[in-house]
Structure formats: structure tokens, C-alpha cells
């Protein structure tokens, strides 16, 4: 660690010596080497601040004796604070003074001008709880760590070529990531000098989910899932939802979150759950091309041995069928914008090739998005009853991890949307994610040549038919198609609503609407290749049409 440069400015040398001694003891405990520069002359201090490299720490008295009137003093410290603040935002500025009864706003002015901590000299003692030297030293340490001025834990990227990981580190910052993880480790009684971070998946509301591990002396490396967000409230709500998930799900299926978020560090917060080694996201695992039999085993564990019981035990009939048909205002705006952006592409021969059919398709999708209206069906004629149950709520290939031991085992992360939901939400979300991100996930997804094949894949899957093939036969695509086929043929086993043939017929229209909703959601994902986004729009229209065809005893 490079030495920390500190400047102390006070017109009384004994105060300078006292401050140095008090802080040196604490800084030594931190393992810091501090190079002190001191002066009793505020003019010299101004010159040092403006013309030398920025100091990491500036400590100033607020009042200095006037050179022309020795019986009077003046608040030259405010000038020093402003100069240090202008020189570097990373500098920690500590102001200390005996005060002046005639200048009642002196301390407030020091804070306004940029001092991070302002203390009356008489309060800077061991008797004070929050203004004692140890507390102030810890405050200085936190500031310098958060700004990256001091590095106690280095960060290494698991894959430096991963653009998503590069974006995360750039946006959040290495100092913020290391400090958040250090706070997690401290709760477990651990300290580390190095951490490794890997990107897992984007979270809702601008959050990011990553895998982290650390090198800990005398112990095996801990592994965690870290979810990072600026929204502390949403993370606290996620902790509550995580507790609910723990109560109703198998203990091995969901990872327990810390009781409280850590932070803030530079405006960011984090929640964390333990993670076993050799875990990867379902998307990455499928891309590696596991054998179809192993894929089927993992889905059997996930959906039948774990989630089916969750769905069955919490199934409740409700008249809230309209919630299946409604999108939030924010989502409505996003989908309508996507439809506008892709209308020409859907019609062009070198795009989706739909020609004159596009205006009608866009109109039907718009009516569903804005009014919850199925094509040619009055909302009043729809069945009123449906079923809700507990669900993960955001079950996609980034939120399912697979442990790659002797027997591959799935587990769930990110319970931010866990709770009561429509019975088809989880399998529909999972299936659409497979089609959008795992089937033909390579360069082939960049071209519209595969559009007709992908459209057929969605249609066949939605009706419970096996998908024969996709555009490519890469190991990753073969594995993804195996997952789709397992879900298509086992959907009645996954969803208790569909366990009987008559129920399968009665509720099938809701399955198609649920798929349409998830496909429309996919149209809003700007990180999807344009051909897949266009596919999501057209396939959503197809599913709405199929919902109309499978409506039970419909009257128009």
C-alpha cells in the first residue's frame, strides 16, 4: 500500500503534535504508513494544497490569529477547506476548532464549504462516543476505502473479456464492490485481501447479480451471490421475500440471504447469500452442452421434486383473471415503443417477411398491451375464474444456478419477485428465456434466416409437441431443446392446474396468454439480438391467437 499523505494546519504547534500522535496510533492499527506535512501558516498551507499532489487527508484549524492584529482571529480554515475541496473530491477534510461565540455559524459554514467532519476541540476526546479519535479515524478509513484511495482488498475479474462484467465494474466501481463484500465478510468474522467477481445476471430495477469469492487466510475461500443496487428499499423487500421463500421451499433449493443489506458504499447497497463452489447459471450450464439425460434430470429435480409441491400446496382459486391480461404502464410503454421500432423489420423480406400482415398484427398486440383485449374477444366473455399460487416470479436461466458436482443440482437465487402469482408464470418465464437466450444463442441469433424455424419452435412447444430441431445443432442448442421438450411434455406434472385432461383443456388458453406476456416482456430486452426481439413480438401474437382458439365455451 502506498503511503498516505496527510496535511495538518494549525497555528499552535502543540495541537499539531497532539493530533498526529492520536491519529498515528489508529492508523498504525490499520496497517497504514502516513507521511505527515505540517504547518502553522495558512498561506503556506494554501500553496501546498494548490501546487502539490492532492493530499488524502487534510486536518485544519478553523481560526487563525491575524498577523496585523494579534488580539483578533479570523476563520482562515474555511478558505483552506474550500481549496482542499476544489483540489480533490477524494480528500477527507477534518476541521477542528475551539469555536468562537461571536461566530455562531462557523461550524455550519465549515460543513457547507466541504468539511466531512467538524469537531469542537473540547469534544475530540476519548470521552466522546462519536467524536473520539478512534471513531474519526474509522470515518477517515471508510472514506478513503470507498474512494479507492486506500486499497485493502484487490478485485480480480473472473473473465476480463466478459462485457457484462466489465460494465458492472465500471458502473459500480472496484472500491465499492470490495467494500460491500468486505462488509459481508466482516459479518461472518472473516477478512480477505483479494476477491474475485463474476457476472451472473441483471436483476430487476437496475440491480446486478454477481458471484464473488475471496482468499481468506487459514480457511477455504468463501463463495457468495451478491446482488447490488442503489435501491435499499427494494433490497430490504427482497430479504423479506427471501424469508418467505425459505419457509415454503425446500431448504436446499433457495439460498438464504443475509438478514440486512450492507451499505451504503458510494450510494450502493448489497444483499448476499452463500454459494457453493462450482455453481454456474443455467444459461451457462446449457451452453456447455450437458447430455440431454442430465438436462432432464436437473429439470426433474427443479420442477417436480421442488417447485411442484410449492405450486400444489399453495394453489388457490380466484376471480382475478384480468391480472393475467394487464401490463404495467411502464411495460406498456416499452412494448409499444418496440412495436413501433420493429414494424418495418417485421414486414421486410430480409426481416420477418410478414409483409401486409404487420399492421393487423401490431394492432392486435397493441389492443392486448393497452386494454388486455384478446383478438376479437370481449373481456366480458372471458372466464372469470383462475388459480394463483406461490411462485419464484422471475424464473429464468440467470436465476437458476446449477452445481456441477457428481450429480448436477439446481438452486434458486434472487427471490425479489417471490410471492403469489398466476399458476403459469414460472414455467412460461423459464421457457421463453430458453428460446430467447439458449436456443441458437451464438452468431445464428444475429440473422433473420432462422426466424421461421424459431417461430415454429415456440408454436410446437406451446401446444405440448416436441421440438424436432432448431437452426443449429450445437451442443448448447441441443441441450436447450432438450430442456424445452422436457417442459413441454411434463407441463401437466409441473402445473397442478393441468393434472387432469379436462383441466388441461379448460385452462389451456391461460397458458398461451402467459407465454404471450413473457414474450412481450422479452421485446423490451435491448440486450437481445434484434431477430430474437422481433420473434418475441410475432410469437406473442401467435400465442394470443391460440388463446382465443382454446377459450372454453367462449361467446363473442
Q: What can you tell me about this protein's structure?
A:
The chain is of the alpha/beta class and 556 residues long. The chain has three domains: 4-146, Response regulator (Rossmann fold); 154-276; 280-549, Aminoglycoside phosphotransferase (APH), C-terminal lobe (Aminoglycoside 3'-phosphotransferase, Chain: A, domain 2, Alpha-Beta Complex). The chain is built from 17 helices and 19 strands. The chain has helices at 13-30, 42-51, 76-87, 106-113, 133-146, 163-172, 174-187, 232-248, 282-287, 292-313, 329-347, 358-371, 425-438, 451-462, 475-494, 501-522, 530-549; strands at residues 4-9, 34-39, 57-61, 64-65, 73-74, 92-97, 117-120, 154-157, 194-202, 208-215, 223-229, 262-265, 268-274, 279-281, 316-318, 386-391, 400-403, 409-412, 419-422. The strands form five sheets. It has a six-stranded mixed β-sheet, sandwiched between helices. Helix 2 packs parallel to helix 3 (76-87). It is elongated and about 100 Å long.
Concise summary:
This protein is 45% helix and 17% strand. By secondary structure, the chain is an alpha/beta fold.
Amino acid at each position: 500500500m502506498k503511503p498516505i499523505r496527510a496535511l495538518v494546519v494549525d497555528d499552535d504547534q502543540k495541537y499539531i503534535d497532539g493530533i498526529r500522535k492520536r491519529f498515528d496510533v489508529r492508523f498504525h492499527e490499520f496497517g497504514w504508513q502516513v507521511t505527515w506535512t505540517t504547518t502553522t501558516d495558512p498561506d503556506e498551507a494554501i500553496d501546498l494544497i494548490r501546487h502539490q499532489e492532492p493530499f488524502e487527508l487534510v486536518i485544519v484549524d478553523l481560526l487563525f490569529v491575524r498577523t496585523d492584529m494579534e488580539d483578533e482571529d479570523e476563520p482562515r480554515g474555511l478558505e483552506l477547506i474550500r481549496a482542499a475541496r476544489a483540489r480533490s473530491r477524494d480528500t477527507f477534510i477534518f476541521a477542528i476548532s475551539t469555536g468562537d461565540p461571536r461566530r455562531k455559524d462557523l461550524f455550519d459554514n465549515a460543513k457547507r464549504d466541504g468539511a466531512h467532519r467538524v469537531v469542537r476541540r473540547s469534544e475530540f476526546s476519548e470521552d466522546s462516543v462519536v467524536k473520539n479519535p478512534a471513531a474519526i479515524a474509522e470515518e477517515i478509513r471508510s472514506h478513503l476505502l470507498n474512494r479507492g484511495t486506500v486499497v485493502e482488498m484487490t478485485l480480480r475479474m473472473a473473465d476480463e473479456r466478459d462485457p457484462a462484467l466489465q460494465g458492472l465494474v465500471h458502473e459500480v466501481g472496484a472500491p465499492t464492490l470490495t467494500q460491500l463484500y468486505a462488509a459481508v465478510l466482516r459479518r461472518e468474522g472473516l477478512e480477505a485481501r483479494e476477491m474475485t467477481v463474476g457476472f451472473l445476471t441483471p436483476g430487476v430495477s437496475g440491480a446486478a447479480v454477481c458471484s464473488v469469492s475471496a482468499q481468506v487466510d487459514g480457511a477455504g475461500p468463501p463463495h457468495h451471490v451478491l446482488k447490488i443496487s442503489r435501491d435499499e428499499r427494494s433490497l430490504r423487500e427482497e430479504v423479506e421475500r427471501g424469508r418467505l421463500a425459505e419457509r415454503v421451499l425446500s431448504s436446499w433449493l433457495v439460498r438464504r440471504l443475509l438478514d440486512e443489506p450492507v451499505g451504503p458504499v458510494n450510494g450502493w447497497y448489497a444483499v448476499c447469500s452463500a454459494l457453493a463452489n462450482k455453481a454456474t447459471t443455467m444459461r451457462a450450464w446449457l451452453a456447455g452442452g450437458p447430455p440431454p439425460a442430465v438436462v432432464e434430470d436437473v429439470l426433474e429435480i427443479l420442477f417436480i421434486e421442488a417447485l411442484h409441491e410449492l405450486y400444489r400446496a399453495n394453489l388457490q382459486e380466484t376471480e382475478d383473471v384480468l391480472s393475467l391480461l394487464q401490463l404495467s404502464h411502464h411495460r406498456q410503454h416499452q412494448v409499444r415503443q418496440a412495436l413501433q421500432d420493429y414494424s418495418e423489420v417485421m414486414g421486410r423480406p430480409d426481416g420477418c417477411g410478414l409483409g401486409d400482415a404487420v399492421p393487423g398484427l401490431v394492432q392486435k398486440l397493441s389492443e392486448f398491451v393497452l386494454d388486455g383485449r384478446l383478438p376479437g374477444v370481449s373481456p366480458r366473455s372471458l372466464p372469470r375464474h383462475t388459480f394463483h399460487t406461490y411462485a419464484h416470479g422471475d424464473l429464468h436461466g440467470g436465476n437458476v444456478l446449477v452445481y456441477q458436482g457428481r450429480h448436477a443440482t439446481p438452486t434458486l437465487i434472487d427471490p425479489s419477485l417471490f410471492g403469489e402469482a398466476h399458476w403459469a408464470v414460472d414455467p412460461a418465464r423459464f421457457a421463453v428465456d430458453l428460446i430467447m437466450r439458449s436456443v441458437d444463442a451464438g452468431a445464428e441469433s444475429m440473422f433473420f434466416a432462422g426466424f421461421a424455424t424459431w417461430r415454429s419452435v415456440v408454436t410446437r412447444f406451446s401446444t405440448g409437441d416436441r421440438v424436432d430441431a432448431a437452426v443449429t445443432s450445437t451442443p448448447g442448442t441441443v441441450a436447450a431443446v432438450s430442456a424445452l421438450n422436457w417442459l413441454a411434455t411434463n407441463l401437466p406434472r409441473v402445473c397442478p392446474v393441468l393434472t387432469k385432461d379436462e383441466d388441461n383443456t379448460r385452462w389451456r388458453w391461460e397458458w398461451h396468454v402467459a407465454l404471450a406476456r413473457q414474450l412481450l416482456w422479452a421485446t423490451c430486452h435491448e440486450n437481445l439480438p434484434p431477430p430474437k426481439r422481433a420473434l418475441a413480438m410475432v410469437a406473442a401474437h401467435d400465442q394470443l391467437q391460440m388463446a382465443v382458439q382454446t377459450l372454453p365455451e367462449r361467446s363473442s
